[in-house]
Structures are given as structure tokens and as C-alpha cells.
Amino acid sequence: PNVKLVTSDNEEFVVDFRIAKMSVTVSRLMEAMNMSETDDASLLSNSIPLPNVTKAVMARVIEWCEKHKNDEPKEEKENDKRGRTTHVVSDWDKEFLKNDEFGRLCQLMGAANYLEIKGLFNDISQTIANMIHGKKSDEIAEMFNIHCDLTEAEKKEIRKKTAWCED
Amino acid sequence: TKEQLEKIFKSMSKFRVALDAALNSIEKRVHSYDIPGDGQILAPGRLNVTDTQQNEGADDLAELSVWEVLPWPVLNHILSFLHTNKECIDLANLSQVSTSFNRAVKEFLGTVKNRPGIEEVVMDNTEEGLMVEMLLFSSNLPFYNLTNLNWSRFERSKSE
């Protein structure tokens, strides 16, 4: 059975029921509309509006879901008692995300957050964390294209507080 | 009639879905500014987004704020991935990027501090000293008894 998803720019995507169910948000909406896998009429006559996702981003989300639709549901590791999160990004996922610019990753992450697709959300989080990892503040600023609005005095103060991690 | 009732029910279902979607959207937007701590909204950092892969909607992306595309809960999630033994240095570097990032890191550390068990970890000081150090650099946090810090272990961790 297929489910119709409609993006913010009015593009309709017809996806497999299993793929639709990978999104907690879509699942909830389907429940609210009494759409079930065994009721073709309910699936055919309804479509799920996704006002926070554009066509281009939805296509990427579906590509990711297609790849992972047969994955065994894995138990996400709880954060340890220090709140540290661990997540392993598979080779396929690295390849999938490697050519996305930061802006595109952010969009995809926003969609994963909105659609509540935890695996994709974690993959992108880890990818962005990896992009930040090992970079100095000016390199991070350049990557994010952020103008540093800290005054010299503020910078000095922060550097003083973070002196313990300077080379 | 039955048909009319069905029609009404169907309309109501569609309305419910639209309403759910709208509420969800509002909730996300509100939640994106739901910053723990003093509740102030982070000053936006500007982000230029260029699109070489997929052009649809690219114009809308120009000059988006980092915080518009990465709302607080999302950024907080990313920071949690950096929050490992050695990567606290990344957090220190992030805190020097801009006022926004400085605050984001502090807020993040505030949420870490408030997690159950974290104080015991800091206080017992039997494992990596870096956790303590990470908290140290965020001066707005109330601090702890540091007299028993295992500095030699910290120095070793830092040099690794």
C-alpha cells in the first residue's frame, strides 16, 4: 500500500506505507486520519500535508528512508551518565551526506527533526559534529559563515576561561 | 443521511490533519526558542546558504539565520555529539565563535550540569578530569569543590 505525502510547495510524493511509518510525525497524522495499511480506500482518498518540508528536501528524506526501510529497529543507546551521545554513521550514510553543503544539511536536519526520523536526525547530527570537530573558532566561523560579533574584551575573557584547552 | 455524515466526517478528518500540522509547526517554532536557563532568545548568526545540488527553493534559503535552520533543540543535539571526553575542546572553540555560540555552549553545559548524576561524577573525580574542566570554562555555572581535582590525570588527557 502507498501513502501520499504533500510538501509545502504542493508536490505530491507517493511512498510505501513502511516508508511513511518511519516518520513518527506522519504515523501520528495517519492515525488521526484513521488511515491503515489494510484499508486501501483510506490511503487512496487522503494525503498527508507536510508544511515544513520542501520537495527537494523530501526527495532526500525519501532516498534515506528507502535505503533504511528494511533495517532492524535498533535500540538507540541511552546517553551515558555524563550525557555523552554516541552514534555510528554507516558508510552508506556517510556517502549519502558527504556532498551536502552545510546549509543543505541543516535543511535536511530540520526535516528529520520535524518528521521525527531519529536515525536520519542522528546521522546528520554526528556529521555536523564531525565537521566541527578539531576546528578552531575562526575555522568554525568560516564554515558557518558567521561574523564574529564578540568584542576584543569579550574574546580575551573567553580565551582566559578556556585557556586550559589551548595548545 | 449516512452519506452526508460521511462527508462531514471526512471534512473533519482533513481539518484535523491540517490543524495537527499547523499546531506541530507552531510547536516546533515555539520550541526552537525554548532555551533552558534565562529564556532569552539567542542572537541570530547569519548563514549564507548556496545551493549547487538542488535548486528548488534555493532563493528562499539565502541569508537564513543559523538559529532558524538549527533551532535550539537541534543545536543542543549536535553539541551532545561533541560532548565526549576529548571533544570538550571543540565546545571551547565553539564558545569563541560568536556571542550566539558562546551562549549556546553555556546553555548546553547548563543542561548537562542539570542531568541526574552529573554532580556526582564531578565530585567523585575518579575518572577523566576533563568533564570538570569543561564545566570550569563556563564561568556562569555555580561551581564545585575542586580541591580534590586529579590534575595529573587532566594534564595527561589533555596531551593525548
Quick description:
The complex is a heterodimer of chains A (167) and B (160). Chain A contains nine helices and three strands, in the order ββαααβαααααα. Chain A is mostly helical.
Identify the strand order in the major beta sheet of chain B: 1-2
CATH superfamily label of chain A: Potassium Channel Kv1.1, Chain A
Strand content of chain A: 5-15%
Query: What is the gyration radius of chain A calculated from CA atoms?
Result: 20 Å
Distance between the termini of chain A: 58 Å
Helix content of chain B: 55-70%
N-end to C-end Cα span of chain B = 77 Å
Question: N-to-C SSE series of chain A?
Answer: EEHHHEHHHHHH
CATH-derived topology of chain A: Potassium Channel Kv1.1, Chain A
Largest sheet of chain A: 3 strands, mixed
Name the CATH architecture of chain A. Answer: 2-Layer Sandwich
Shape of chain B: rod-shaped
The helix count of chain A comes to 9
Q: Any key phrases for this structure?
A:
heterodimer; A: 167 residues; mainly alpha; Potassium Channel Kv1.1, Chain A; three-stranded mixed β-sheet; 9 helices; 3 strands; 9% strand; B: 160 residues; 2 domains; 2 strands; 60% helix; F-box_dom (chain B); F-box domain-containing protein (chain B); F-box-like_dom_sf (chain B)
Description:
The complex is a heterodimer of chains A (167) and B (160). Chain A contains nine helices and three strands, in the order ββαααβαααααα. Chain A has a three-stranded mixed sheet with strand order 2-1-3. With 167 residues, chain A is mainly α. In chain B, helix 5 (88-95) packs antiparallel against helix 6 (99-113). The termini of chain B are far apart. The longest helix of chain B has 31 residues, at 2-32. Chain B is mostly helical. In chain B, strands 1-2 form a two-stranded antiparallel sheet. Chain B has nine helices and two strands; from the N terminus they run H-E-H-E-H-H-H-H-H-H-H. Classes of the chains: A mainly alpha (167), B mainly alpha (160). Chains A and B meet through helix 2, strand 3, helix 4, helix 6 and helix 7 of A and helix 1, strand 1, helix 4, helix 5 and helix 6 of B.
